[in-house]
Specification:
This protein is α+β, with helices and mostly antiparallel strands. It has helices at 16-31, 39-48, 68-75, 86-92, 113-127, and strands spanning 35-37, 51-57, 80-83, 101-105. The chain has a four-stranded mixed β-sheet, sandwiched between helices.
Length: 128
């Protein structure tokens, strides 16, 4: 995690500790097939109402290509958060390419339920 200036539009930006927690849960969600990668698929999960929370990369270039997601997420009352690096997000998603947005989806009887809930609370604290 480098400390260079990030786009001020990337709000709320997770600090390094929370970023690690988020990327860790994203990685687990990949294993449980509870992850949609990419801005388009994240948009679809929000529209369908199956998204638990949305993670976006603050270093997407240009950032505007994913700035429709916070608006949609707020409409649907879904927490969203930015992490500093698209490379790290891609790695956590289990792909070799950078990923600028991903959505952790809901699943009945999921083992990740409690961890997802804790992380949603932490993200909502950032928004206050």
């Amino acid at each position: 995690m480098t400390g260079e200036a990030v786009n001020p539009k990337a709000y709320p930006l997770a600090d390094s500790q929370l970023s690690i927690t988020i990327l860790d849960l994203v990685q687990q969600a990949t294993n449980y097939k509870q992850l949609k990668k990419g801005a388009n698929e994240a948009t679809k999960t929000l529209n369908r109402g199956i998204s638990e929370f949305v993670v976006m990369a603050a270093d997407a270039e240009p950032l505007e290509i994913l700035l429709h997601l916070p608006l949609l997420a707020e409409d649907k009352n879904v927490p969203y958060v930015f992490v500093p690096s698209k490379q790290a997000l891609g790695r956590a998603c289990g792909v070799t390419r950078p990923v600028i947005a991903c959505s952790v989806t809901s699943n009945e009887g999921s083992q990740l339920k409690s961890q997802i809930q804790q992380l949603k609370d932490a993200i909502e604290k950032l928004l206050i």
